[in-house]
Structure formats: C-alpha cells, structure tokens
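Need the bound structure for flavin-adenine dinucleotide, inputs here:
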Amino acid sequence: MIPAAFDYHRPGSLEEAVALLARHGDEAKVLAGGMSLLPVLKLRLGSYAHLVDIGRIPGLDYIKEEGGLLKIGAVTRQATLERSELIRTRYPILGDAVPLIADPLVRNRGTVGGNLANGDPANDQPAIMLALGATFVVRGTRGERTIAANQFYQALYTTALAPDEILTEIRLPVPPARSGGAYVKLKRKTGDFAVAAAAVQLTLDGKGAVARAGIGLTNAGPTPLEAMDAAKFLAGKTPDEKAIAEAARLAASESSPGADVRGSVEYKREMARVMVTRALRTAIQRAGGQ
Ligand SMILES: Cc1cc2nc3c(=O)[nH]c(=O)nc-3n(C[C@H](O)[C@H](O)[C@H](O)COP(=O)(O)OP(=O)(O)OC[C@H]3O[C@@H](n4cnc5c(N)ncnc54)[C@H](O)[C@@H]3O)c2cc1C
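Answer from helper R.:
Posting the output first, comments after.
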C-alpha cells in the first residue's frame, strides 16, 4: 500500500530536528532507519504529516568506550554493531543478539536508537539494555537529559520520550572483571520476532557468587520486561543449577505474555523459563563461573 502524504524534512543538526518536532507536535515523527515506521505508514496503521529524518545528522553514528562507559550513537545501524570487533569481543550479549534481529536487509537500515525508541516489546535490544543497566541520553527543546532504561518503557509502544525529544546516545557501563552476558532467542524462522527471548548480564565476586545480575525479557508482556525478582534472588548466591532453575522459574512467573500466532500464554511463559535458563548458563560460563 502507499502511505498517506507527508512532508519530508532532512535537518542537518539536532537543534534543527528538535525544533521541527516542537513546531509540528503530534503531526511529526522521527524517521531513522524506517524499518518499523515505514511499514506502519504503508499499512496505514498510523499517519504523520511530517517525517523528520535524523539519518543524515552528523555525529550520531559511533561505538566507543569512554570514561567507563560503552557509548553507542542512536543512529548507528544494527549492521555496524554486528561487524564491530569491540562488540564481538567485549559485549557478547550484543554479539549474540544482533545477528538474530530480523534479516541482513533490515539490519543494514535499522538503527539501535530506532529499535529502542519504537517501544515494541518484541524488539530484541530493549531487554539487553535492561539487563546491562543502560542509560539513554535524549535531546529536546529544553536541553539534554538522561533516562534509565528501566524507566523508559511505560506501555505498549509508549516510552518516556516527550514528542520533541530525540534519543541521541545509549550508555552502557563497561562490565567489570568476572562478568558475562548472553542473549538467547526462540523464533519460528529467520527474520521473525521472538516467541520468547532472554538477556542476562551478571558479575561474579571473588568467591564465585553473583555480585550483580540483570535479566531482561523480550515479548514477555506489553513492555520490555526486567525480571527483578529473579535478579534479586540470584544476588549473593552461588549460581549452581538449583539457583539457575529457581531464577528462571521466578523470571517466567514475572512475565505476562499475550497469546498470538506465536503461541499460548502458557507456552510462551514456559519458553521464557527455558530461555532464561540457557542465557544464565552461558552468562555464568562467560563470567568464568562453573
Ligand atoms: C521484517 C522485519 C523483521 C523484524 N524483526 C525484528 C526482530 O526480530 N527483532 C527486532 O528487534 N527488530 C525487528 N525488526 C525491527 C527492526 O529492528 C527495526 O529496524 C527497528 O525496530 C527500528 O529501527 P529503525 O531505525 O528502522 O527505526 P524507524 O522505523 O525509523 O523508527 C521506529 C520508531 O522509533 C522512532 N525513532 C527512531 N529513532 C529515534 C530516535 N533516535 N529518537 C526518537 N525516536 C526515534 C520513530 O519515530 C518510530 O516511532 C524487524 C523489522 C522488519 C521490517
């Protein structure tokens, strides 16, 4: 189908982009890779009179470690993450996830910021950001502010972004020694969204017990979900099979998936349990645990 008519804006700076969003209010939408937004427009699930393309604004496409943080520019393509040596060697949780997102065509266009700002609980990267304890930097007409990933997702397709705000940078704490992460996704076929998926990032202390655990779930409810009970349960525990099983059970019980073509509520909860179990085992192993 052909989308409803819109005015296309291609600002050259963030200031210009934010001003356009402020001027056009609810009638304007940020356009990044277009991989989620264009299908919405073409299927006429939504329409906006003004699209503000942030894809050509300089300085929003980078991956770098700085001041104890991994910083990713919001317009960085998923394919860039996939090819990054830094991500592959130092952030295996992202290295696991990115090749599982959609297909190469979509990853060549889709951006990290678009994946996060879309507010879709089926997108893979939000759960990872919850597990890693990420912070999002956003810019609006009132200046810059930061939002913790666990404060960002408010309801289905609804985030803490104000209409005039643009997500500009994702900040992840560089994991300390004895840390490991993993992302495990069950999907029906290549290119599909998750039936269930789990992101786990944990750090072990000198005795091999869990010093910190972060667990995020994909497609497990109306928003990306942080399995807080499971993470709290693991803190201070030796991560043996018994602890893994209980943490996975807790995470599944925190989930509230909806029934759809990918399965019933019961099936998806059970798959969430299995995904958390697998992600925990890999993360523990990568952290140098058992
Ligand atoms: C066939 C197909 C399969 C897919 N499968 C998966 C999958 O398995 N897993 C997965 O995670 N994703 C999947 N996706 C989604 C894909 O990853 C998208 O690229 C991503 O969700 C959106 O990124 P984008 O840059 O294309 O954003 P756009 O489509 O341009 O924008 C998406 C939304 O975010 C807003 N937005 C974008 N960037 C910003 C910003 N910097 N600040 C504020 N708002 C912003 C837009 O206004 C819009 O509302 C799939 C997409 C397709 C088409």
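Comments: The chain has a mean pLDDT of 97. The chain has twelve helices and 14 strands.
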